[in-house]
Specification:
Strand order of the largest sheet: 3-2-1-14-15-9
Distance between the termini: 36 Å
Largest sheet: 6 strands, parallel
Shape: globular
Strand content: 15-25%
Helix content: 25-40%
Number of strands: 17
């Protein structure tokens, strides 16, 4: 395997502070994979959703302070022109099209989608009362308007089986295929989004879905939470169009059911404590996971040198032929926390 043609990254994440420690999961896991495989690691950041303030606000500095460093950065706001070029190509090839549709929309902008596609959208966003759609955010009735918009055509030509670990999400992706194959997804908004193509305000979720197409590397390992399966579906569809080969490592969202004050309990130790705590609370082959107080006690019993030995054991380089099979087996090994803890005596 030519490691210079591989890269690992997270899905673009909005900057956050120490108080939002739980959001570090994808970043820590992508760092782990890059250190294990000895390949390039790119931190992907989403600033465009913060329409009023497109700055990292010390986010990278915060990560550096806890020794989460990266080889490169993808920041959507810095790649607008590159992504617009990709969108132009999709438009030229008629994968993105203009067409008029009846759009359901509310004043606050939360509801903004084709009337004929209502059944595909999250019904938590709206309620139907007396034959009228009511936005659950602004509490106002939605309007129906015939408008010309941009749509992304989902062509079976570019739909491939998504290569993911674990495979327990395959049924979800198959359902997306059944729903959306040969369909058209609305990718422009009525409100200002900060990014324009022709005369249309682009949906920011669609815009950053092209982020992998900007990478120089052909082979990509992307780490993402299982709350974003539809995003994976769209990202993979677009990646195939631009000849990218992607493996998705899908982790569960780690709940905090025991109400652990993470920024105090985790950050009072060194950066290895933090990394290990996230790594071992993450259950790769389950759809659910939770931070565990018992895990805090286990790791706290280890001296710094013990934590170093434990982490070095986890990232020790190994030989492999097939990277997908290797990662599948490697992530299974992480389920056995107790064995690793007790092997390290320090």
């Amino acid at each position: 395997m030519k490691k210079d043609n591989y890269v690992v990254t997270n899905f673009p994440i909005a900057p956050f502070t120490k108080e939002k420690t739980a959001r570090l999961t994808s970043i820590i896991l992508s760092k782990l994979i890059s250190e294990k495989l000895k390949i390039k690691n790119i931190l992907s950041i989403n600033l465009l959703h913060s329409f009023k303030n497109k700055k990292t606000n010390g986010f990278i500095k915060f990560l550096n302070e806890i020794q989460l460093t990266f080889d490169d950065y993808f920041i959507d706001n810095d790649n607008i022109n590159i992504i617009i070029e990709k969108i132009q190509r999709l438009y030229d090839e008629k994968i993105i099209i203009e067409k008029s549709e009846t759009i359901i929309q509310c004043d606050c902008g939360l509801i903004d989608f084709p009337k004929k596609a209502l059944k595909y959208y999250n019904n938590k966003l709206f309620k139907k009362i007396n034959n009228k759609y009511i936005c659950t955010k602004c509490k106002k009735g939605c309007q129906e308007k015939k408008e010309k918009r941009l749509f992304l055509k989902i062509s079976p030509r570019y739909i491939k089986k998504i290569k993911c670990i674990p495979q327990l999400y395959n049924n979800n992706f198959q359902q997306f295929n059944e729903y959306y194959s040969k369909q058209e997804l609305l990718i422009s908004k009525s409100r200002k989004t900060g990014v324009m193509f022709k005369d249309y305000n682009l949906d920011i979720d669609f815009f950053w879905s092209l982020f992998l197409t900007t990478f120089n590397e052909e082979n990509i390992i992307a780490v993402i939470c299982n709350k974003h399966l539809f995003n994976i579906y769209i990202v993979d569809y677009l990646a195939h169009i631009f000849h990218k080969k992607v493996i998705y490592l899908i982790h569960p969202y780690i709940e905090n059911k025991e109400n652990i004050v993470l920024e105090k309990e985790v950050f009072k130790y060194d950066h290895l404590f933090m990394k290990l705590y996230f790594i071992y609370n993450n259950k790769w082959f389950s759809s659910e996971s939770s931070f565990n107080k018992g895990m805090l006690k286990y790791l706290a019993k280890k001296r710094k040198i013990g934590r170093e030995k434990l982490y070095n054991k986890i990232i020790q380089e190994e030989e492999y032929i097939d990277i997908y099979e290797f990662l599948n087996e490697y992530l299974k090994k992480q389920l056995i926390f107790q064995k690793d803890i007790y092997k390290i005596k320090t």
